[in-house]
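Our preliminary data section would be incomplete without showing what the modeling component actually yields. Below, a chain of 160 amino acids is followed by its predicted structure, encoded as tokens that our downstream tools consume directly.
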Amino acid sequence: MSESFVRDIHGEDAMVAAGEALGRALMDGGVVFFHGNLGSGKTTMCRGVLRAWGHRGAVKSPTYTLVEPYRHRDTDIYHFDLYRLGDPEELDYIGIRDYFEQGNVCLVEWPEKGEGALPKPDLDIFLSGEGDKRQLSLEAGSSHGDRIINSLREVCAPND
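Predicted structure:
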């Protein structure tokens, strides 16, 4: 059975911290899909992931470029935002399959826009809520995703 994980997140700093915990759990690579409405915290969480990898600059959603590459030592990290994608076939033009090599970290916002062109994720993250309160729900899509969730359970305090 696939692992799942649910936590409440209060505020931007907590969302970044959750992303940092996720980033540390992704040191062996992985494909993570982020689901949620506009403003739900997807990009904020991606910023935390990148901070865990040592990135200290700005992290903006690559809405117009579709993908923003980052490099940390020998690991490629790709942040995708498919919000403005018109058709999943457009991903073939950017060589989408080349990004999803073993050991890379691929963070994909709005994955439903690329359905059929993207590989199966190791982890699906669902963000919902309003104001400063969000609910973070993770679902594993692979055995690697199960390991990521188990790693997060060890470092994230349970909900009260």
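The domain at 4-154 is CATH 3.40.50.300 (Rossmann fold). The first strand starts at residue 4 and ends at 10. Preliminary results of this kind motivate Aim 1 of the renewal.
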